[in-house]
Amino acid sequence: MPLGKDRLLPGLLTAALALAAAFGIHRLVPVLPAMTLAVVLGLLAANLPGTAVWVAGRARPGLDFAGKHLMRGGIVLLGLKVSIMDVLGLGWLALLLIAGVVLASFAGTYLISRLFRLPAQTSLLIATGFSICGASAIGAMAAVRRIRHVDTVLPVALVTLCGTLAIGVLPLLVHPLQLTPLAFGAWTGASVHDVGQVVATAQTAGTAALGIAVVVKLTRVLLLAPIVAAAGLHQRFSAASATGKAAASALSGSQAAPDPGRLPPVIPLFVLGFVAMVGLRSSGWLAPGILDAGAALQDILLGAALFGLGSAVRIRTLLHTGSRALLAALAAWLLIALLGLAAALLMTV
Question: Buried b / exposed e across 235-253, counting CB within 10 Å, b at 16+?
């Protein structure tokens, strides 16, 4: 039964107030990305005595709506940031290196998560978020694999934590590693999870580092569609195979006939929307004002979604059940940092 507007309104208004606070803090302290602040404010709201009852009670339907549906709208608009021309401008060697980093990061993070005995679905979401574009990628993968909204909370918290860690740690390594601004920017773009976190990290080394970091990062974002499509095909074939086996068993009389229902989509509509926005941006038809408006709306939608997801995280539960997940995330963060550094040095040699 669909939720009425009166049930959604308290949560959506709460997310709007939190988002205004996140943007305000970001303006005062630009090094802190607004999206990261949105998650942190959600965590605080869920765990402070004065607000925990509110976000778990009357505000919960609207916050869950934001975490699921507004996230999808934000992913669509994320495509307006990706220009195929900018991506191709990196050159074929850089594109191959970036694709290699994403694939190796995805496989490595998934294997690390499984070695730490995390569930397969959690491992898949962590691998997707760490290797591509943070919480946005987690939301897309959860949709195509039909993973419950509540099961995305821990991966989003981990990808936000590790992305924030990169903001503080990577700039400290510029001088010890003797990195040029271009190499540092490429490293940041190849290894930091969220776009906002990439900007916050790379800008510490100047405009040259920031420019290449954003293009490398958006090249990783572009890989969201094919990876999600591959996951969708795998899910569809698995569902069809399971239905076929159950039908065969039913015909043999060993069990009741299955209800096949709807097969999962190969690619969710919002991911197709993301691809369409990439095409529009690359066409050059959109005026700068429209692109700026799209970027602002994307920040609003994703920020509200991330506050909604953060507000579902209980620190006590996270510490009790998420210690293995935290260790897996830190190991994956280190792996991606090393892979990204190697690729960056090869790109800028």
Answer: beeebeeeeeebeeeeeee
Q: What does the DSSP 8-state code read for residue 286?
A: S
For residues 331-337, average pLDDT: 96
Distance separating alpha carbons of residues 303 and 299, to the nearest angstrom: 6
Closest to 336 in 3D by CA, of 70, 111, 85 = 111
- Tell me which amino acid residue 33 is: P
Q: So what's the pLDDT on residue 146?
A: 86
DSSP 152-197: GHHHHHHHHHHHHHHHHHGGGGTTTTT--HHHHHHHHHHH-SSHHH
> What pLDDT sits at residue 237?
76
For 38, list phi and psi in degrees, rounded to 5: -60, -45
d(CA 332, CA 163): 12
Of 196-200, 215-219, 233-237, give the lowest mean pLDDT range: 233-237
Sign of CA dihedral 70, 211, 209, 180: positive
Q: Where residue 1 falls among pLDDT bands split at 50, 70, 90?
A: very low
CA distance 331 to 117: 14
Cβ atoms of 55 and 17 within 8 Å: the answer is no
Pairwise CA distance, residues 62 & 133, whole Å: 25
Average pLDDT, the chain: 89
SS3 category, 59: coil
Distances (CA, A) of 225 to 132, 271, 342: 10, 6, 25
Distances from the Cα of 296 to the Cαs of 67, 141, 290, 300, in angstroms? Answer: 18, 24, 10, 6
- For position 102, what pLDDT does the model report? 97
Rounded to 5 degrees, what angle do the CA atoms 275, 151, 24 make? 70
Count of other CB atoms within 10 angstroms of residue 20: 12
Find tokens 């009852």 and name the residue: 53
Euclidean distance between CA atoms 296 and 59, whole angstroms: 24
Least confident of 73-82, 111-120, 239-248: 239-248
